[in-house]
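User: quick one, sequence for these tokens?
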């Protein structure tokens, strides 16, 4: 039989075994997630490679429309910040009470 290591009267082997099992579970989950991500990336690449030119154009148009929507939102925020900067310090915001910080 193996001798149990005691630390302040507490048997440490069960704790070491439990910690080891936990580390193995986390490492396995991490490794599995990496494999899944790699497989999904490969499938996405294959789908892009096999897409017809019309499909590629449609994907690019969708991406462009999403980027244009983001651009419009950012331009609105920039205009609000510039308007706030140009107001005198004593003047209150028009958006008071709407729950928006800007």
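Assistant:
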């Amino acid at each position: 039989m193996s001798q149990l290591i005691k630390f302040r009267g507490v048997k440490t082997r069960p704790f070491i075994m439990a910690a080891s099992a936990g580390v193995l579970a986390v490492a396995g989950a991490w490794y599995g997630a990496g494999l899944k991500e790699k497989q999904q990336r490969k499938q996405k690449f294959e789908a892009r490679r096999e897409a017809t030119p019309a499909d590629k154009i449609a994907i690019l148009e969708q991406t462009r429309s999403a980027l244009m929507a983001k651009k419009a939102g950012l331009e609105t925020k920039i205009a609000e910040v510039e308007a706030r900067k140009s107001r005198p310090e004593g003047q209150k915001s028009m958006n008071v009470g709407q729950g928006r910080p800007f």
